[in-house]
Amino acid sequence: MKIIDFNNIYVSYEVNPVLENINLEIEEGQHWAILGSNGSGKSTLIKLLSNDLYPNTKYKFKKLIFGKERWSIFDLKKNLGIITNDLHNYFEKHGNFLTAYEVVLSGYYSSIGVFKHQDFTKTQHKKALEVLEFLEISHIKDKKVHQMSTGQLRRCIIGRALIHEPKAFILDEPTVGLDIKAQNSFLQIIRKLSSKASIILVTHHIEEIFSEISHIAMLYNKTIFKQGEKKEILNSDNLSKIFESKIILEEENQRYYIKSIE
Fold it and tell me: Which residues belong to any copy of the ABC transporter domain (predicted)?
């Protein structure tokens, strides 16, 4: 099944075009990184993927997610886990009284918190504990959000989506705000997650591209400049084009890093 099947998609804010002629197919089981500089349209593309935004165009287009044109947001979240920095910040501000366990459990109702009128089965409680264990945060089960590190909260938010066992995850610059040690630890968790679901990583950080990523799409000049298998697309020339700088890309032990930039 195709997770994403987009063809000839245009998006404008008022009269200003933001994305043009977007064509993208992502198969279930594949892991993708979508690369682009700040302002390249990554946030708009995430909104298209999450069904928070629809094309506004006179052109004929195709926009299918898991083979369907229309989804309720609640049903879509059961199939597509969407982890954004906006959601992280919202929990920091409005859910800082919640424990790690409650953040994960709240995924069943897509709520910010757990409330008396919400009924949870023994199976659901057991599943929440299993998710905490899988994400290696069982030891902070009773820790409140305001006491957590950035990485701990981010794992809780992933757990909130993982409770539904979605077929794919969209991760928006997942290591932002993490120090070097926490970045490495968090990427190991994402690699572990990739054994359960497809990963769509949206970023401009090359170091976030882990070895299981099989395909790359590059956003530039309001469209997808290049896309395909990682070994064919991820190179110095293509990166230099989309970031408008001379970039030398190196690879070591299946991890990529920028050797120099001018």
Answer: 4-246
**Which residues does 91 contact at the CB level (< 8 Å), separation at least 6?**
98, 103, 112, 145, 153, 156, 157
Which secondary-structure segment (H or E) carries 126?
helix 122-134
The gap from C-alpha 36 to its chain's centroid, in whole angstroms, comes to 14
For the chain, report the end-to-end CA distance as a whole number of angstroms. 42
For Cα atoms 128, 132, 138, give the angle at the middle one, nearest 5 degrees: 125
pLDDT at 193 over 90: yes
* Element containing residue 18 per DSSP (H, E): strand 16-27
Other C-beta atoms within 10 Å of 145: how many? 21
* Spatial strand order in the sheet of 215-220: 80-83, 168-172, 198-203, 32-35, 215-220, 223-229
- 174's tokens: 């997942």
DSSP calls for 45-78: HHHHHTTS-----SS--EEEETTBS---HHHHHH
Residue 34 has pLDDT above 90, yes or no: yes
pLDDT tens-digit readout, 138-180: 999 999 999 999 999 999 999 999 999 999 999 999 998 898 8
Give the tens place of pLDDT for each residue, 194-222: 999 999 999 999 999 999 999 999 999 99
Judging by beta carbons within 10 Å of its beta carbon (0-12, 13-18, 19+), is residue 180 exposed, middle or buried? exposed
How many Cβ atoms are within 10 Å of 32's Cβ, its own excluded? 24
Tell me the three state secondary structure of residue 153: helix
Strand pairing report for 62-65 and 80-83? unpaired
d(CA 221, CA 137): 41
Residue with tokens 């932002």: 176
